[in-house]
Automatic annotation (TrEMBL):
Protein name (database record): Dihydrolipoamide acetyltransferase component of pyruvate dehydrogenase complex
Comp. bias regions, Basic and acidic residues: 84-101
Cofactor(s) needed: (R)-lipoate
Record-linked Pfam families: 2-oxoacid_dh, Biotin_lipoyl, E3_binding
Listed GO CC annotations: cytoplasm
GO molecular function, one term: acetyltransferase activity
Domain named Lipoyl-binding: residues: 2-77
Annotated segments matching region Disordered: 84-117
Keywords annotated in UniProt: Acyltransferase, Lipoyl, Transferase
Organism annotation: marine metagenome
Record-stated family: Belongs to the 2-oxoacid dehydrogenase family.
Length: 437
């Protein structure tokens, strides 16, 4: 019997995938759940397991082919296997809700929520002459390539779920317009550079992940008016707290206590006081998000991913630490769900783990802000004690805040980063990790 392998659905908004690599060739034998191929989307690269045991009889899509969801991409001859169905969909990669983290069974209050709650965001119109549209990255990419402006997209009646504008809707709109109707959006273009004097070297094809990163970064720079503000933070108290608790924390949780959860917690509390930083711009509207979902930049082989920790406003430090550790582990094992790689309302990039002092990260669309955290380093600092100035050795960290000047003014950015600084320097450690002695 022959089993059809079809392109799996990789997320709610994902309608197609790119074949990156086949791990088997025609004639190879394969076991059920053994890795068959790797698929890439504009969100994530995922290893896909075989739906059945048998022999690969046909491969119908080549590397770099873009294939619609549900289309047959391979066939497996299951002769000798007890297979009941002729068509089997490839398993989706495990998502966060499928994979739980082992937590010691102790009597303690719940620190986290397993399922992302449905957001009922507040939408504020900046003017009343346009309709708000739901736009996917794929639609935005085509619109950018075809010179269709955001104001035009908002006028398209979407036929997708909840009024979402689909690629077909956009293509129909493009087909009804004449060439003279389009005014291409002026974008930065990297010009080819001739290097005749350089000897040797080699030229390789850019891989799928790097292409996606390149497109997203360029799109963000073309979309948001990036502005940066920096501030210095005294992390001495947090460093001392981590040093004091790291052994008992590891014994309890089986992973290390790091500084990133403290930065996330301080940022979340600052976002509660500054809702405009926890918002998005949608055409002529501002969407104020009810939940605080923090995207965290995670370095992986060959690039960078930004998965989200959902509902951080409902978690304490312990819950954030557990979610962060599990999320980073799934990301680096390529088992992260595409749905976890979207939905952030604010992003944090902790490049300090690579000993970088300061940086200017690019905003993760559709966020309006991103916080960069540098390395914590001991420095001589002038502090006031008993009405006198003294020089002390303190553990200092540089914060950099990138924000969208279309919505956030300089004063708003300065107030926000000052709140994050205050929250870090004056963090209340009482009951922060209540399960530890």
């Amino acid at each position: 019997m022959v089993v059809d392998v079809v392109m799996p659905k990789m997320g709610e908004s994902i309608m197609e995938g790119t074949i990156l690599e086949w791990y088997k060739k025609v004639g190879d034998s394969i076991e059920k759940d053994e890795t068959l191929l790797e698929i890439g989307t504009d969100k994530v690269d995922s290893e896909i397991p075989s739906p059945a045991s048998g022999t690969i009889s046909e491969i119908l899509a080549n590397p770099n082919d873009i294939v619609d969801i549900g289309k047959v991409i391979a066939k497996i001859d299951t002769a000798g296997s007890d297979i009941q169905e002729q068509k089997t969909e490839v398993k989706e990669p495990k998502s966060a809700k499928d994979k739980e983290v082992a937590i010691p069974s102790k009597s303690m209050p719940s620190t986290e929520k397993k399922v992302q709650k449905t957001q009922k965001n507040i939408i504020v119109k900046m003017s009343d002459n346009t309709n708000s549209a739901i736009l996917t990255p794929a639609v935005m990419k085509i619109a950018s390539q075809q010179g269709v402006r955001l104001s035009e997209l908002e006028l398209i009646d979407g036929t997708g779920a909840n009024g979402r504008v689909t690629k077909k809707d956009l293509q129909n709109y493009i087909n009804t317009k004449t060439d003279s109707d389009f005014k291409p959006i002026k974008k930065s273009v990297t010009k080819p550079v001739s290097l005749p004097s350089i000897q040797g070297g080699k030229k390789i094809q850019i891989d799928h992940m790097r292409k996606m990163i390149s497109e997203h970064m360029r799109y963000s720079l073309d979309t948001s008016a990036h502005v940066y503000i920096m501030n210095e933070v005294d992390m001495t108290n947090i460093v001392q707290y981590v040093d004091e608790k790291e052994e008992s924390f590891f014994a309890e949780e089986r992973f290390k206590l790091t500084y990133t959860p403290f930065i996330i917690l301080a940022t979340v509390n600052a976002l509660k006081d500054t809702p405009e930083m926890n918002s998005s711009i949608d055409g002529d509207s501002i969407i104020y998000h009810n939940s605080i979902n923090i995207g965290v930049a995670v370095s992986v082989d060959g690039g960078l991913m930004v998965p989200s920790i959902f509902n951080c406003d409902e978690k304490n430090l312990l819950g954030i630490s557990r979610d962060l550790n599990a999320m980073v582990d799934r990301t680096r094992k390529k088992s992260i769900s595409p749905d976890e790689l979207q939905g952030s309302t604010f992003t944090i990039s902790n490049f300090g783990v690579f000993d970088a002092t300061i940086g200017t990260p690019i905003i993760n669309q559709p966020n309006v802000g991103i916080l960069g955290a540098g390395a914590i380093k001991k420095q001589p600092i002038v502090i006031e004690r008993d009405n006198s100035d003294i020089i002390a050795i303190r553990s200092m960290m540089m914060l950099s805040l990138g924000f969208d000047h279309r919505l956030i003014d300089g004063a708003g950015g300065a107030i926000f980063i000052a709140k994050v600084k205050e929250n870090l320097e004056n963090m209340d450690f009482k009951d922060l990790l209540y399960c530890l002695n």
